[in-house]
Amino acid sequence: MSKIAVLIPVYNQPDDLLRTLDSVDRESADLDFVIVDDGSDPPVGIPDGRYRHPVHLLRLAQNRGCTVARNLGLQLILDGGYDYVALQDAGDTDIGERMALQAAYLDAHPEIAVVGAWAQYVDRAGQPLYVYQAPAGSQQIRTRMRYVSAFANPASMIRLTALRQVGLYDPAYPIASDYEIFFRLTRAFETDNLQQVLINKEDHPQSLSLGNRRRSLWYRLRAQRQYFSWASVHAWLGVGATLLLMLLPYRLVLGVKRWRGYAH
């Protein structure tokens, strides 16, 4: 049994999925792929014999959304005897030995439940947009969580013993379920981020739509309210920042990030 399960939900992105699998398969870490096809039409396929690492493909008969797909994959992973789950999205590509670096960090720090990394955001052509510089250390991470996710989701690895304690993704969050589950994990455990870029994260065109962005911000606000602390000034400021973002066009926000060259 491999130590790491790489969880990849996918919906109608066959070429993006293969690009991600090719990227991770080059790595030396002991891992399995767990792919959840969320009702793709036609169903995604994996070429026989293409990958060194084992591939487990689960299929949903119809599209149920990323939260349901992730939970289906996590159920298999939790039953499979793995130590860690690495989160990945179709279309994103690892840099270097991401899996080995994060697994080694968790091996050496048994108190850490989640380890993330910085992410280079790119457009569909692979051109850099900005770098998300995830904070280091539990205290800074808990502060950042009051505003935005302190983890780049597809650059994160979770210890499965910790996940068993906090539970799976909350189905009440069809969007931003990663933000909500990271809130639970950071409240219950110590966490960290490696201070280096370990993934190219693709910024999909559909994520630029105003409707999807406002819906995502609404669910972010919901999580901020769910875990609100009346005594924390950052809790108040985080809610205010989310409300402000709801009023600003995404292209303006992205333009600022590109101008600065990075995003905190």
Short account of what is shown:
With 264 residues, this protein is α/β, with parallel strands linked by helices.
Explain how this protein is built:
The chain has helices spanning 14-25, 66-78, 98-108, 138-145, 160-166, 177-188, 210-226, 233-247, 250-260, and strands spanning 4-10, 31-37, 55-59, 84-87, 93-94, 112-122, 128-132, 157-159, 190-202, 262-263. It is an alpha/beta fold and 264 residues long. It has a single domain (4-263), classed as Alpha-Beta Complex (Spore Coat Polysaccharide Biosynthesis Protein SpsA, Chain A), CATH 3.90.550.10. Helix 4 packs antiparallel against helix 6 and helix 7 (210-226) packs antiparallel against helix 8. The mean pLDDT is 92.
The string of secondary-structure elements, in order, is EHEEHEEHEEHEHHEHHHE
Query: Which structural class do the helices and strands define?
Result: alpha/beta
Shape: globular
Total separate domains: 1
Strand content: 15-25%
Just name the CATH architecture: Alpha-Beta Complex
CATH class identity: Alpha Beta
The percentage helix is: 40-55%
How many beta-strand runs?
10
Main sheet record? 10 strands, mixed
CATH topology term:
Spore Coat Polysaccharide Biosynthesis Protein SpsA, Chain A
Q: Report mean pLDDT, rounded to a whole number.
A: 92
CATH superfamily: Spore Coat Polysaccharide Biosynthesis Protein SpsA, Chain A
Our count of helices gives 9
Distance between the termini: 37 Å
The whole-angstrom Rg is 18 Å
**Which residue ranges are poorly predicted, with pLDDT under 50 across at least 5 consecutive positions?**
none
